Amino acid sequence: MTQLGLQLYNYNEWANQQIFNRLKELPKDVYRQEIESVFSSISNVFAHVYLSDLGWIEVFSGKSMNYALELASQQKRETESKGIDEMEAMFLKLSERYKLFLSKKENVDKPIEIENPSGGLMKTSVSELVTHVVNHGTYHRGNITAMLRQMGYVSVGTDYGLYLFLSQREKT
After folding, report:
1. Which value, to the nearest 10 degrees, does the dihedral of the CA atoms of residues 149, 150, 151, 154 take?
2. Backbone dihedral region of 152: left (phi > 0), alpha (psi from -120 to 50 degrees) or beta?
3. What is the 3-state secondary structure (H, E, C) of the chain?
4. What are the φ and ψ backbone dihedral angles of 123, each rounded to 5 degrees?
5. Which of 7, 4, 12, 5 is nearest to 91 (CA)?
6. What is the pLDDT of residues 47-87, one digit of tens each?
7. 75: phi > 0 → left, psi -120 to 50 → alpha, else beta; which?
């Protein structure tokens, strides 16, 4: 995997952790509080992102998109029922799986074909789709930030520029 691809994935992991840390500072009920928004609760946002990330690593590992969608469907209710600490642990475990997979350079930039369940074939590479995984996470962290503000709370910075700044500062 390219250095940039790994850096982007590490950013994604860091940004998720920033949100988990912020949520742990807030009253416990905020995580499951019903809200009229894109998702009905922050816990449902995290379940969605987790199941999507799980599906993509399955596809990267050679499973079909249909398999990934079925897996998400089977695990949706159970994943949505997880508390914040359980969900955080699941994300960390999944991140380790991603980093192990992405650290192996073979086949990561090799062209792959993914059959879209609604029809058609997409030709791409894992390295291109890592950008999608990170972008998807960023989009939904934005949903969480908006939901927190709607509930009267401040979120936390998770943008890539902040990550780069803090990463460089840690090296010095």
Report:
1. 0
2. left
3. CCHHHHHHHHHHHHHHHHHHHHHHHCCHHHHCCCCCCCCCCHHHHHHHHHHHHHHHHHHHCCCCHHHHHHHHHHHHHHHHCCCHHHHHHHHHHHHHHHHHHHHCCCCCCCCEEEECCCCCEEEECHHHHHHHHHHHHHHHHHHHHHHHHHCCCCCCCCCHHHHHHHHHHHHC
4. -105, 120
5. 12
6. 999 999 999 999 999 999 999 999 999 999 999 999 999 99
7. alpha
Six-digit token string for 15: 């940004």
Q: Residue 29 carries which side chain, given as an amino acid letter?
A: D
What separation in angstroms does the CA of 159 have from each of 87, 146, 156, 162, 164? Answer: 22, 14, 9, 6, 9
Per-residue pLDDT tens for 5-41? 788 999 999 999 999 999 999 999 999 999 999 999 9
What structural domains does the chain harbor? 3-171 (1.20.120.450)
Distance CA 139, CA 60 (A): 21
**pTM (2 d.p.):** 0.94
Three-point CA angle 103, 108, 113, nearest 5°:
150
